[in-house]
Amino acid sequence: MNVLDWILLAIRWGHALAAVAWVGGGIFYLMVLRPAIQQARGLPAETGKAIGVEFRGLVSTAIAVLLLTGVILSASRLTVDVVTSPYVAVLVVKIVLALYMFYVVRFMRQDSYPEDPELGESRWQRLLGRLTGTTALLVAGIAVIGLSDVLDGLLENALA
């Protein structure tokens, strides 16, 4: 392995670590922290807000790392001669899902993350609330991580 391979390996690790931190944090929040907070009704309101602020900091850092490393890794992989059309198609789906997640967190849920947004009265408001909720973001994040494995498999098959 040359120096560039080691650098790409470090970038790949940073990318994976940021994804796992965001998605893993979301899983922890939904399955452990939120139920515990709901059971402990005596907690001050500031506690939930403080958790949200800290988790938002983690997510903001993860987004920055994912964007930077994702661009580098995509450029690195797309310059390989054996990249196939299915690889590009799966990569596009992964990028679209990731951009959806970034958009929701950055522009649609600036004040409410990680809490789910209030569902409005109209059918469209309820649908929008479900598409931008914590669970929807978590499902999208798990799908993005799964698509990463699909991309690795497609590249390995093309190299074989």
Describe the protein in words.
- With 160 residues, the chain is mainly α.
- The chain has one domain (3-159).
- The protein is built from five helices and no strands.
- α1 packs antiparallel against α2.
- The longest helix is centred in the N-terminal third of the chain and has 37 residues, at 3-39.
Can you lay out the helices and strands and say which pair or pack?
Layout: H1 3-39, H2 45-78, H3 85-108, H4 123-131, H5 134-159
Helix pairs in contact: 1-2, 1-5, 2-3, 3-5
How many distinct beta strands? Answer: 0
- Which sheet architecture does the biggest sheet show? none
Number of domains: 1
> Could you say which overall geometry the principal axes of the C-alpha atoms support?
elongated
Strand proportion:
under 5%
Q: How far apart lie the N and C ends?
A: 19 Å
**Rg measurement, Å:** 18 Å
Order of helical and strand elements: HHHHH
Poorly predicted segments: none
Our count of helices gives 5
Structural class: mainly alpha
Helix content: over 70%
Rounded mean pLDDT is: 85
Please summarize what this structure is.
By secondary structure, the protein is mainly alpha-helical.
Quickly list its features.
mainly alpha; 160 residues
